[in-house]
Specification:
Layout: H1 4-7, H2 11-23, E1 43-47, H3 53-65, E2 71-77, H4 91-107, E3 114-119, H5 127-134, H6 136-150, E4 154-158, H7 169-184, E5 218-222, E6 237-238, H8 251-259, H9 270-281, E7 285-286, E8 288-292, E9 326-331, H10 333-344, E10 357-359, E11 366-376, E12 381-388, E13 394-396, E14 400-404, E15 408-417, E16 426-435, E17 438-448
Parallel strand pairs: 1-2, 1-4, 2-3, 4-5, 10-17
Antiparallel strand pairs: 5-8, 6-7, 9-11, 11-15, 12-14, 12-16, 13-15, 16-17
Helix pairs in contact: 3-8, 5-7, 6-7
This protein binds zinc ion (ZN).
Length: 456
């Protein structure tokens, strides 16, 4: 439309107004496709093996049936390295069996959105082992993709801490990847190819994945430790004996019914099975609040403070070198990694959960302990390391002098054998380190003299 104003103005404005008139007659672009709402999750559970979901299942049942939450699941592996209580199927065939067992268990609670990272089941206790065999980078890329696709409000996963218990390295790897993905999925520089818009989504051969960045609001952890006191007050707990108003049975019953699909992992004998289930389901589901980007208390309900809609990306702290001077010692391997990991992801409070601990690393009462001797001086230095062992224990190597290069760290691998008469007790080992006749530090590791069936 040509306005009165333009009629009494000069030729330039008149031509602009004519263009303006032309714009109103242009066709409207089709609306941008929103994210696929079918996959929008309230809860994304990131675990390692089919049946890992059973630990959180009583809470998931409550969230699904009473709160109508949409739950999606990522399994890191198909559990292809376990034993088989049903038949001879092993390795890849066992993985094929367990994939369906896991899908059936989850489907019984209405969970249908289930993905596998295709990582190899890696029995062990050192998270660095699983991160190596899983292909850390490729697996992280997949988890970030699925966070962006499912846009969860909350991520639930295994605790990324070394604990005395099953302490499965695959569980810990799932916790590490879920934490990293929590911090990366909202970052458009991370895996940007997942965010590029396809040139023509209705055509073939597109390369942009067309996802959007997503910042989840909270991340919670649960643990496979054999002791629970350190979890008290760290997050919400849900009683498994509570009865579901909509189903008329306990959440433990719903979880048990789901768990029955995981037959290859359950004791075939009914008496043993009952004992096994009673042991797990007599405990509440205990969560540790990892971090929350919304209001709410540590022990409040998982959805406390969560309102619909997206929130802005929150940058994690990121890695910063620890300040160290002169000579020092610390526990190495997974313990050293976690110290840096927690700081980089603003999870320092996880370092307060436990003093360093382990259970036995093998059926022969063995314990592996990696130590690091740091030399942050400008010259090579000699450090004497010796251990104070519980009675009846042996170690290899024994007391020794290590030459540590300037600005280097010497990785010491200690192998211990516990006294089997101390079974199920807690024992302490202390290492002291000296240089030039002066102490440079000491450290203590407590050991639960118990083997849980997973090698260190
Ligand atoms: Zn597992």
């Amino acid at each position: 439309m040509i306005t009165k104003l333009s009629l009494c103005c000069g030729p330039l404005l008149l031509s602009l107004c004519l263009y303006s008139g032309a714009w109103s007659q242009l066709p409207a672009a089709s609306p941008n496709s929103p994210p696929d709402h079918r996959y929008k999750a309230d809860i994304l559970l990131v675990v390692a093996h089919p049946d890992d979901d059973s630990l959180a299942a009583p809470y998931l049942a409550k969230a699904i049936y009473e709160e109508h939450k949409h739950v999606s699941v990522i399994y890191g592996t198909r559990g292809d390295a376990g034993g088989n209580a049903v038949g001879n199927e092993q390795a890849a065939s066992l993985g094929a069996v367990r994939e369906i067992e896991g899908r059936r268990a989850l489907a019984s609670m209405g969970i249908l959105d289930v993905w596998f990272l295709d990582a190899p089941d890696t029995p062990g206790q050192d998270v660095l082992h699983s991160l190596e065999t899983w292909g850390h980078g490729a697996s992280l890329e997949k988890v970030v993709r699925l966070v962006r696709l499912t846009r969860p409000e909350v991520i639930l996963t295994w605790l990324p801490v070394y604990v005395a218990g099953e302490n499965h390295d695959d569980h810990q790897a799932a916790g590490v990847l879920a934490t990293e993905a929590f911090d990366l999925a909202g970052d458009p520089v991370a895996f940007p190819e997942q965010l590029a818009a396809p040139r023509d989504r209705t055509s073939i051969g597109n390369y942009g994945e067309g996802l959007r960045p997503w910042q989840a609001k909270k991340i919670y952890y649960f643990s496979d430790a054999t002791h629970f006191e350190f979890l008290e007050g760290r997050g919400p707990q849900y009683k498994t004996s509570d009865v579901s108003p909509s189903k008329g049975v306990s959440y433990a019953t719903i979880a048990t019914n789901a768990w029955m699909s995981d037959k290859s992992q359950l004791p075939p004998n009914q008496t043993d099975l009952k004992k096994y289930l009673d042991q797990y389901l007599s405990e509440p589901v205990r969560f540790v609040l990892g971090k929350s980007l919304v209001n709410g208390s540590t022990t409040g309900d998982i959805f406390e403070g969560i309102v619909p809609g997206s929130i802005a990306y929150v940058r994690a702290h990121g890695y910063e070198p620890a300040v160290r001077e002169n000579l020092s010692i610390e526990l190495g391997g997974p313990w050293a990694y976690y110290r840096e990991f927690w700081r980089a992801h603003k999870l320092e409070h996880l370092s307060q959960l436990l003093s360093p601990e382990t259970a036995l690393g093998g059926p022969e009462n063995t314990v592996w302990v990696p130590l690091l001797i740091h030399n942050d001086t400008d010259a090579a230095r000699q450090v004497t390391l010796q251990a104070v062992l519980p009675p009846g224990w042996t170690e290899k190597p024994g007391p020794m002098i290590y030459t540590v290069g300037a600005h280097d760290a010497y990785p010491v691998q200690v192998n211990l054998v516990a006294d089997s008469s101390q079974k199920s007790s807690w024992q302490k080992i202390t290492w002291t380190a000296d240089a030039d006749g002066h102490s440079i530090g000491s450290l203590t590791l407590r050991v639960h003299v118990n083997y849980n069936g997973v090698p260190q």
